[in-house]
Amino acid sequence: MAEKETECCESYEVHENLLKIVNETMPAETELYDLAELFKVFGDSTRIRILFVLFEAEVCVCDLAQVLNMTQSAISHQLRILKQNKLVKSRREGKSIFYSLADEHVRTIIAQGCDHIEET
Amino acid sequence: MAEKETECCESYEVHENLLKIVNETMPAETELYDLAELFKVFGDSTRIRILFVLFEAEVCVCDLAQVLNMTQSAISHQLRILKQNKLVKSRREGKSIFYSLADEHVRTIIAQGCDHIEET
DNA sequence: CAAACATATGAATAAATGTTCATTTGTTAA
DNA sequence: TTAACAAATGAACATTTATTCATATGTTTG
Fold this sequence. Notes:
Two copies of one chain form a homodimer. By secondary structure, chain A is mainly alpha-helical. Chain A contains six helices and three strands; from the N terminus they run αααβααββα. Chain A has one domain: Winged helix-like DNA-binding domain superfamily/Winged helix DNA-binding domain (Arc Repressor Mutant, subunit A, Orthogonal Bundle). In chain A, β2 (88-93) and β3 form a beta hairpin. The longest helix of chain A is centred in the first third of the chain and has 14 residues, at 29-42. The N and C termini of chain A lie far apart (49 Å). Chain A binds a DNA duplex (30 and 30 nucleotides) through α5.
Protein backbone atom coordinates (compact mmCIF):
# COMPACT_ATOMS: atom_id res chain seq x y z
CA MET A 1 0.00 0.00 0.00
CA ALA A 2 1.18 3.47 -0.79
CA GLU A 3 1.84 5.84 2.03
CA LYS A 4 -0.51 8.72 2.62
CA GLU A 5 1.12 12.06 2.17
CA THR A 6 -2.04 13.84 3.16
CA GLU A 7 -2.73 13.00 6.76
CA CYS A 8 -4.60 15.32 9.00
CA CYS A 9 -6.11 15.33 12.48
CA GLU A 10 -4.74 11.79 12.90
CA SER A 11 -7.59 10.26 10.90
CA TYR A 12 -6.94 7.75 8.15
CA GLU A 13 -9.89 5.65 6.98
CA VAL A 14 -12.44 8.33 7.68
CA HIS A 15 -10.47 10.44 5.34
CA GLU A 16 -10.33 7.95 2.52
CA ASN A 17 -14.05 7.36 2.80
CA LEU A 18 -14.82 11.04 2.84
CA LEU A 19 -12.76 11.66 -0.26
CA LYS A 20 -14.50 8.84 -2.05
CA ILE A 21 -18.00 9.90 -1.10
CA VAL A 22 -17.36 13.54 -1.85
CA ASN A 23 -15.91 12.73 -5.23
CA GLU A 24 -19.05 10.78 -6.02
CA THR A 25 -21.60 13.32 -4.83
CA MET A 26 -19.93 16.66 -5.58
CA PRO A 27 -21.41 18.18 -8.73
CA ALA A 28 -19.18 19.05 -11.66
CA GLU A 29 -17.20 22.24 -11.60
CA THR A 30 -19.50 23.92 -14.10
CA GLU A 31 -22.64 22.97 -12.21
CA LEU A 32 -21.20 24.37 -8.98
CA TYR A 33 -20.36 27.55 -10.77
CA ASP A 34 -23.85 27.84 -12.26
CA LEU A 35 -25.44 27.18 -8.90
CA ALA A 36 -23.41 29.91 -7.23
CA GLU A 37 -24.20 32.19 -10.14
CA LEU A 38 -27.92 31.56 -9.70
CA PHE A 39 -27.89 32.34 -6.00
CA LYS A 40 -25.81 35.43 -6.63
CA VAL A 41 -28.75 36.74 -8.62
CA PHE A 42 -30.99 36.41 -5.56
CA GLY A 43 -28.30 38.05 -3.45
CA ASP A 44 -29.21 41.65 -4.13
CA SER A 45 -32.10 43.45 -2.48
CA THR A 46 -32.96 45.47 -5.58
CA ARG A 47 -33.46 42.30 -7.60
CA ILE A 48 -35.43 40.72 -4.78
CA ARG A 49 -37.69 43.76 -4.70
CA ILE A 50 -38.19 43.49 -8.45
CA LEU A 51 -39.17 39.85 -8.04
CA PHE A 52 -41.66 40.69 -5.30
CA VAL A 53 -43.34 43.14 -7.64
CA LEU A 54 -43.44 40.51 -10.39
CA PHE A 55 -45.05 38.08 -7.93
CA GLU A 56 -48.07 40.35 -8.12
CA ALA A 57 -48.22 41.51 -11.72
CA GLU A 58 -46.66 41.77 -15.14
CA VAL A 59 -45.19 45.27 -15.34
CA CYS A 60 -43.17 47.49 -17.64
CA VAL A 61 -39.78 48.91 -16.82
CA CYS A 62 -40.89 52.43 -16.04
CA ASP A 63 -43.57 51.16 -13.67
CA LEU A 64 -40.96 49.14 -11.84
CA ALA A 65 -38.71 52.17 -11.64
CA GLN A 66 -41.50 54.24 -10.14
CA VAL A 67 -42.79 51.65 -7.73
CA LEU A 68 -39.30 50.94 -6.43
CA ASN A 69 -38.25 54.58 -6.63
CA MET A 70 -35.14 53.94 -8.68
CA THR A 71 -33.82 55.14 -12.03
CA GLN A 72 -34.91 53.46 -15.24
CA SER A 73 -31.31 52.60 -15.98
CA ALA A 74 -30.65 50.86 -12.69
CA ILE A 75 -33.81 48.78 -13.07
CA SER A 76 -32.98 47.94 -16.64
CA HIS A 77 -29.51 46.71 -15.75
CA GLN A 78 -30.95 44.48 -13.06
CA LEU A 79 -33.68 43.14 -15.32
CA ARG A 80 -30.99 42.15 -17.76
CA ILE A 81 -29.32 40.03 -15.09
CA LEU A 82 -32.63 38.48 -14.06
CA LYS A 83 -33.41 37.66 -17.65
CA GLN A 84 -30.00 36.22 -18.45
CA ASN A 85 -30.51 33.84 -15.58
CA LYS A 86 -34.02 32.90 -16.73
CA LEU A 87 -35.80 34.19 -13.66
CA VAL A 88 -37.77 36.65 -15.70
CA LYS A 89 -39.15 36.88 -19.21
CA SER A 90 -40.19 39.86 -21.30
CA ARG A 91 -42.72 40.76 -23.93
CA ARG A 92 -42.94 43.87 -26.07
CA GLU A 93 -46.16 45.83 -26.34
CA GLY A 94 -45.75 49.00 -28.36
CA LYS A 95 -43.09 51.18 -26.83
CA SER A 96 -43.16 49.34 -23.54
CA ILE A 97 -41.61 46.05 -22.57
CA PHE A 98 -43.43 44.02 -19.96
CA TYR A 99 -41.63 41.73 -17.58
CA SER A 100 -42.99 38.74 -15.70
CA LEU A 101 -41.75 35.72 -13.76
CA ALA A 102 -40.22 33.08 -16.01
CA ASP A 103 -40.80 30.23 -13.67
CA GLU A 104 -42.53 29.23 -10.46
CA HIS A 105 -39.21 28.01 -9.05
CA VAL A 106 -38.41 31.60 -8.31
CA ARG A 107 -41.29 31.86 -5.87
CA THR A 108 -40.31 28.60 -4.21
CA ILE A 109 -36.69 29.55 -3.75
CA ILE A 110 -37.55 32.90 -2.24
CA ALA A 111 -40.17 31.31 -0.02
CA GLN A 112 -37.58 28.87 1.30
CA GLY A 113 -35.28 31.78 2.01
CA CYS A 114 -38.02 33.54 3.95
CA ASP A 115 -38.66 30.39 5.97
CA HIS A 116 -35.03 30.16 6.92
CA ILE A 117 -34.90 33.76 8.05
CA GLU A 118 -38.07 33.66 10.07
CA GLU A 119 -36.84 30.57 11.86
CA THR A 120 -34.51 32.36 14.22
CA MET B 1 -59.34 64.15 -6.81
CA ALA B 2 -55.71 65.10 -6.69
CA GLU B 3 -53.70 65.11 -9.86
CA LYS B 4 -51.12 62.41 -10.50
CA GLU B 5 -47.62 63.75 -10.80
CA THR B 6 -46.27 60.30 -11.49
CA GLU B 7 -47.72 59.14 -14.75
CA CYS B 8 -45.96 56.66 -16.93
CA CYS B 9 -46.71 54.59 -20.01
CA GLU B 10 -50.12 56.23 -20.13
CA SER B 11 -51.54 53.95 -17.45
CA TYR B 12 -53.49 55.34 -14.52
CA GLU B 13 -55.59 52.93 -12.51
CA VAL B 14 -53.30 49.96 -13.11
CA HIS B 15 -50.66 52.04 -11.50
CA GLU B 16 -52.62 52.93 -8.43
CA ASN B 17 -53.58 49.33 -7.91
CA LEU B 18 -50.04 48.11 -8.37
CA LEU B 19 -48.72 50.57 -5.83
CA LYS B 20 -51.33 49.50 -3.32
CA ILE B 21 -50.76 45.79 -3.78
CA VAL B 22 -46.99 46.11 -3.74
CA ASN B 23 -47.07 48.18 -0.58
CA GLU B 24 -49.13 45.46 1.04
CA THR B 25 -47.07 42.47 -0.03
CA MET B 26 -43.52 43.83 -0.14
CA PRO B 27 -41.59 42.71 2.94
CA ALA B 28 -40.03 45.26 5.24
CA GLU B 29 -36.72 46.83 4.33
CA THR B 30 -34.82 44.79 6.92
CA GLU B 31 -36.37 41.53 5.80
CA LEU B 32 -35.46 42.22 2.17
CA TYR B 33 -31.94 42.97 3.25
CA ASP B 34 -31.70 39.77 5.30
CA LEU B 35 -33.09 37.73 2.41
CA ALA B 36 -30.52 39.12 0.00
CA GLU B 37 -27.82 38.56 2.58
CA LEU B 38 -28.85 34.92 2.93
CA PHE B 39 -28.75 34.25 -0.78
CA LYS B 40 -25.42 36.03 -1.05
CA VAL B 41 -24.04 33.33 1.21
CA PHE B 42 -25.11 30.68 -1.30
CA GLY B 43 -23.65 32.77 -4.11
CA ASP B 44 -20.09 31.57 -3.88
CA SER B 45 -18.86 28.28 -5.25
CA THR B 46 -16.41 27.68 -2.43
CA ARG B 47 -19.19 27.89 0.13
CA ILE B 48 -21.42 25.68 -2.00
CA ARG B 49 -18.65 23.10 -2.17
CA ILE B 50 -18.28 23.24 1.59
CA LEU B 51 -22.00 22.64 1.96
CA PHE B 52 -21.91 19.67 -0.40
CA VAL B 53 -19.24 18.10 1.78
CA LEU B 54 -21.32 18.75 4.88
CA PHE B 55 -24.29 17.08 3.18
CA GLU B 56 -22.31 13.87 3.52
CA ALA B 57 -20.54 14.15 6.85
CA GLU B 58 -19.53 16.19 9.85
CA VAL B 59 -15.94 17.24 9.22
CA CYS B 60 -13.16 19.29 10.72
CA VAL B 61 -11.60 22.32 9.11
CA CYS B 62 -8.40 20.68 7.96
CA ASP B 63 -10.33 17.83 6.33
CA LEU B 64 -12.39 20.37 4.44
CA ALA B 65 -9.26 22.17 3.37
CA GLN B 66 -7.75 18.96 2.05
CA VAL B 67 -10.85 17.63 0.37
CA LEU B 68 -11.47 20.93 -1.38
CA ASN B 69 -7.78 21.54 -1.96
CA MET B 70 -7.74 24.99 -0.43
CA THR B 71 -5.82 26.66 2.40
CA GLN B 72 -6.99 26.29 5.98
CA SER B 73 -7.36 30.04 6.22
CA ALA B 74 -9.60 30.39 3.19
CA ILE B 75 -11.87 27.61 4.44
CA SER B 76 -11.96 29.08 7.93
CA HIS B 77 -13.00 32.50 6.63
CA GLN B 78 -15.83 30.95 4.63
CA LEU B 79 -16.96 28.78 7.54
CA ARG B 80 -17.25 31.91 9.61
CA ILE B 81 -19.66 33.39 7.06
CA LEU B 82 -21.68 30.18 6.88
CA LYS B 83 -21.89 30.07 10.65
CA GLN B 84 -22.86 33.71 11.07
CA ASN B 85 -25.76 33.05 8.75
CA LYS B 86 -26.79 29.91 10.64
CA LEU B 87 -26.24 27.52 7.75
CA VAL B 88 -23.63 25.61 9.68
CA LYS B 89 -22.89 24.77 13.29
CA SER B 90 -19.69 23.72 15.01
CA ARG B 91 -18.56 21.55 17.87
CA ARG B 92 -15.15 21.31 19.48
CA GLU B 93 -13.50 17.92 20.00
CA GLY B 94 -10.02 18.28 21.39
CA LYS B 95 -7.89 20.34 19.09
CA SER B 96 -10.29 20.01 16.19
CA ILE B 97 -13.53 21.78 15.47
CA PHE B 98 -16.16 19.84 13.62
CA TYR B 99 -18.66 21.52 11.35
CA SER B 100 -22.07 20.25 10.24
CA LEU B 101 -25.25 21.53 8.65
CA ALA B 102 -27.28 23.69 11.00
CA ASP B 103 -30.54 23.09 9.31
CA GLU B 104 -32.26 20.99 6.65
CA HIS B 105 -33.43 24.16 4.92
CA VAL B 106 -29.98 24.41 3.46
CA ARG B 107 -30.41 21.15 1.56
CA THR B 108 -33.82 22.24 0.30
CA ILE B 109 -32.66 25.59 -0.94
CA ILE B 110 -29.71 24.12 -2.81
CA ALA B 111 -31.91 21.37 -4.23
CA GLN B 112 -34.31 24.00 -5.58
CA GLY B 113 -31.39 25.79 -7.15
CA CYS B 114 -30.25 22.57 -8.82
CA ASP B 115 -33.76 22.00 -10.15
CA HIS B 116 -33.84 25.42 -11.69
CA ILE B 117 -30.50 24.95 -13.40
CA GLU B 118 -31.24 21.50 -14.76
CA GLU B 119 -34.49 22.79 -16.21
CA THR B 120 -32.99 24.43 -19.25
C1' DC C 1 5.83 25.14 31.30
C1' DA C 2 7.10 24.52 26.38
C1' DA C 3 6.25 22.59 21.90
C1' DA C 4 3.12 21.07 18.50
C1' DC C 5 -1.10 21.21 16.38
C1' DA C 6 -5.89 22.98 14.82
C1' DT C 7 -8.38 26.91 14.05
C1' DA C 8 -9.46 31.90 13.94
C1' DT C 9 -8.56 36.49 12.62
C1' DG C 10 -6.71 41.10 10.86
C1' DA C 11 -4.62 43.57 7.11
C1' DA C 12 -3.72 43.84 2.28
C1' DT C 13 -4.70 43.00 -2.46
C1' DA C 14 -7.13 41.79 -6.61
C1' DA C 15 -11.46 40.92 -8.68
C1' DA C 16 -16.44 41.41 -8.96
C1' DT C 17 -20.56 44.16 -8.54
C1' DG C 18 -24.36 48.02 -8.37
C1' DT C 19 -25.44 52.58 -9.61
C1' DT C 20 -25.06 56.78 -12.30
C1' DC C 21 -24.57 59.43 -16.43
C1' DA C 22 -24.56 59.87 -21.24
C1' DT C 23 -25.87 57.87 -25.28
C1' DT C 24 -28.10 54.52 -28.43
C1' DT C 25 -31.78 51.55 -30.15
C1' DG C 26 -36.41 50.77 -31.23
C1' DT C 27 -41.31 52.11 -31.50
C1' DT C 28 -45.26 55.25 -32.22
C1' DA C 29 -47.53 59.38 -33.62
C1' DA C 30 -47.54 63.96 -35.80
C1' DT D 1 -39.31 62.06 -41.75
C1' DT D 2 -39.03 64.13 -37.39
C1' DA D 3 -40.16 64.41 -32.52
C1' DA D 4 -41.24 62.08 -28.38
C1' DC D 5 -41.15 58.26 -25.54
C1' DA D 6 -39.55 53.53 -23.49
C1' DA D 7 -35.87 50.68 -22.80
C1' DA D 8 -31.04 49.04 -23.33
C1' DT D 9 -26.19 49.66 -23.04
C1' DG D 10 -21.21 51.17 -22.26
C1' DA D 11 -17.94 53.54 -19.40
C1' DA D 12 -16.71 55.19 -14.92
C1' DC D 13 -16.75 55.11 -10.02
C1' DA D 14 -17.40 53.47 -5.39
C1' DT D 15 -18.20 49.51 -2.70
C1' DT D 16 -18.06 44.76 -1.58
C1' DT D 17 -15.87 40.42 -1.43
C1' DA D 18 -12.60 36.17 -1.68
C1' DT D 19 -8.08 34.84 -0.99
C1' DT D 20 -3.39 35.17 0.86
C1' DC D 21 -0.01 35.97 4.34
C1' DA D 22 1.29 36.60 8.94
C1' DT D 23 -0.02 36.11 13.43
C1' DA D 24 -3.00 35.10 17.48
C1' DT D 25 -5.94 31.94 20.24
C1' DG D 26 -6.94 27.68 22.26
C1' DT D 27 -6.02 22.75 23.18
C1' DT D 28 -3.26 18.66 24.07
C1' DT D 29 0.95 16.21 25.11
C1' DG D 30 5.68 15.70 26.77
